[in-house]
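Handout, section B. The chain below has 79 residues.
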Amino acid sequence: MVDAANRLHEAGATVVASGNAAAEIEGAAYVLPVPEAPHAILSPLLSVVPGQLFAGALAHAKGLDADYPVGLSKVTRAR
């Protein structure tokens, strides 16, 4: 992940880091705080909520509706 984040940063992307290793991401514009997990296996789960809150706030700030993303189409067929 560190290598991928570095490549994104070099390409000019805004990097947002989350998780217990977020401090290792050099050039991250934002670091989302994540509480310490009692067991290492739970750490990824604790990154989900801050990531979802960030994505929702970003969509709102851009004037987008997070419940109806552009380009998403759903087809439901009833028989």
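Note. The longest helix spans residues 43-61. Compare this with the example in section A.
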